[in-house]
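forwarding from the other thread:

> can someone predict this with copper (II) ion?

sure thing
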Amino acid sequence: MTQLLNRLAALLGLVLALTCAPQTHAAVAGISGPTFNLTAKADQITTGDANSVLVWSYANGLGTLQYPGPTLIVNQGEVVTVNLTNSLPVATSIVFPGQSDVTAIGGSAGLQTAEAAANGGTVSYTFTASQPGTYLYQSGTKPALQIEMGLVGALVVRPAGVTKQAYAHAGSAYDREYLLLLTEMDPTIHLQVAQGNLSPDTSDFFAVQWYINGRNGMDTLYDNGIPWMQTQPYGSMVLGKPGEKLLLRLVNAGRDAHPFHVHGNNITVIARDARLLESAPGMGPDLAWSDFTIKAIPGATYDGVFTWTGRYLGWDMYGYASNATYCNQLTHLPTVSYPATTQDDSDRCKPIPVTLPNQLDLTYGMHYSGSPYLGSTGTLPPGSGEWNPYAGYFFMWHSHSEKELTNNDIFPGGMLTMFVVVPPNYSLPTE
Ligand SMILES: [Cu+2]
């Protein structure tokens, strides 16, 4: 019953998400520096199998814990200070992989960096954000347990002097950016911690829950800041218009590799671990690779540029000749001018080259609008199709390790979100 209610809530949420424009954000959600006050603490998160799990993660100041920790956003060249207060019952610390000059003030010496003592200890870390890109931060104390417990987050360093670029070079320009942080969990470890065992055996780790931005599918599709997931504020639905350049900042903060698969087109990976894939400084991403799956290894970050267009389809995604309202790109929706580059002129007004089956012979996917054409709805049986009132195209973006598409063995769920091609008349905010 709870499961059913969860699904109904998810359905309602998606309807709200798609009908209450604007629902997405042109920039990555997070908190801006260069000074951050983080508190490591414990709290519960909601899982996709209608359960909850104790996690350790970070709060912004005295606020609510969020899993993953707040995305820290700074500008290249800034001297970044992270003041950590530890409310956990064990010592903890933060390491910043990729930052070369981290110094710690206070705390006591640990294996990797200075640690804040249990139950109120503090430590302060300072470094210069010298190179732009996508990074992670995570516990440097007993990482096999503390990273599993949730002490991870992302760090975005924006390049100096440019906007809407991931790096200094124009080859990293984008229209809209998204950050997806991947993790997995073995809830039995969390249960032992909840029962008071602060050093559980992590050697028999066996994940059954997989997360994007701290949520299991399909909770991933909710917008940021949903009130009933206060400890999981970051959504991960990816929205974009035909022809737009979407920057995907992909962070594998887990301990397993996750082959992250994008549908709709290949993605061009332009940077790895916050370094542009260039053969020499200033060249731009000439060593970028194009693939349909980013084989994200633990601890690595990837920046990819993704564009969806209707090119090479062989038919007009906006409509067809015998349906004059939808055919001509410029008259389809009079207030919108369609970017000429989103499809080939030779495809204009060509119908989809298959005959749609009779309604009675169709199975309706929940995102089907009743029409194969972008931005147009067709006839559906009563009650169907409300998940996609704007008639966008939905593509699954997900882990290509199939077991990771479950919540505790229940499909669908896990490391799964949706990329939505929204029709050009749909209002998305610009940065
Ligand atoms: Cu797939």
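The pocket of copper (II) ion is lined by residues 261, 263, 396, 398 (CB under 6 Å). thats all i got for now
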